[in-house]
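Read as amino acids, tokens; as here:

___
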Amino acid sequence: MTDITDAYFSNLIGRLETLKQVLAEPMAQAASVILDAARGDKRVYVFGTGHSHMLAEEVHYRAGGLAFTVPVLVGSAMLHEGAVISSVYERTQGLVRPMLERYGMQPGDVIIIASNSGVNAAPIEAADYAHEIGARVIAITSIAYSAAIANGRRRLAEVADIVLDNGLPPGDAVLDLAGTGLRVGPVSTAVGVTVINAIFAEVASELAKSGDAPVYLSANMPGAAEINQKLVKKYRPRNPHL
């Protein structure tokens, strides 16, 4: 292992160890809100633009994942239809509402909004829309990043009901390239995925105590076809991506 590879592993592991302690309370709060939603047959939406959308894909139809999650996947706000223009879209006012309206969000639902910078128009509007509907908003964001670049703009951390501060520095990348002024080694995706999966594991654990944890199996596991088919049938009406 090279020095920089070792540094990346060490940096990420150290951050996760720290967040395990720092986020213990807000993660417990998030799990409680999601558990209430699950018990009320509500849905948990996950939204992010740019690379943050990968957290929405992470929870969707995932082996070991919860079936009541709904990814908000809009091509123009992601990367595969044009990375440069997607960066413009996420900063443009008024584009998120029509994106979210197709998902049929309801009062009592929950939306997890991932935005490392926490100041772009899209995540702020998503939070506002959810509150108008009567849904709860959980944010995964960097408070340090958004504080550094807000310049008077609203911040996701200020409008969410529960804030999961990923503790990352402005710019996301954590390793300096000596003599270049450049930084490499972004960690927001790895941190975000870890946090969201840990929360969902807690929720699943609580639901399992009453024998009702809607968890997908890997397609190659025994009994997976029957279990997954049953879950898809139940949750497809409110998940356009199943």
User: Anything to note?
Assistant: The chain is about 45% helix and 15% strand. The chain has a mean pLDDT of 91. The radius of gyration is 18 Å. The first helix runs from residue 3 to 22.
